[in-house]
Amino acid sequence: MAIIINVDVMLARRKMSVTKLAEEVGISLTNLSLLKTGKVKGIRFATLNQICTVLNCQPGDILEYRPDEHPPEPGAGGDDGF
């Protein structure tokens, strides 16, 4: 996936545990762990807002775009519907 989640980096910079972040954001530890490992397909803006508020950071500190080495062919069944 081209979007990299850097929650671990921000947690280390803030010297905060995953458990503490989950409690303060109001999401389950399981969901936060799935987000950290990139095993989710999306995140609600409200959740991203809460994470940024608690970690005192910008969304760009958490989300990073890295182009895929082998992007899918146009029209190859990707999730490009709006």
UniProtKB/TrEMBL annotation:
InterPro entries (alphabetical): Cro/C1-type_HTH (IPR001387), Lambda_DNA-bd_dom_sf (IPR010982)
Superkingdom in the source lineage: Bacteria
One Pfam assignment: HTH_26
Signal peptide residue numbers: none
SUPFAM superfamilies: lambda repressor-like DNA-binding domains
CDD domains: HTH_XRE
Comp. bias (Basic and acidic residues): 63-72
Region listing for Disordered, in residue ranges: 63-82
GO MF terms held by the record: DNA binding
PANTHER family: DNA-BINDING PROTEIN (PTHR37301:SF1), DNA-BINDING PROTEIN-RELATED (PTHR37301)
UniProt protein name: Transcriptional regulator
Organism per entry: Niveispirillum cyanobacteriorum
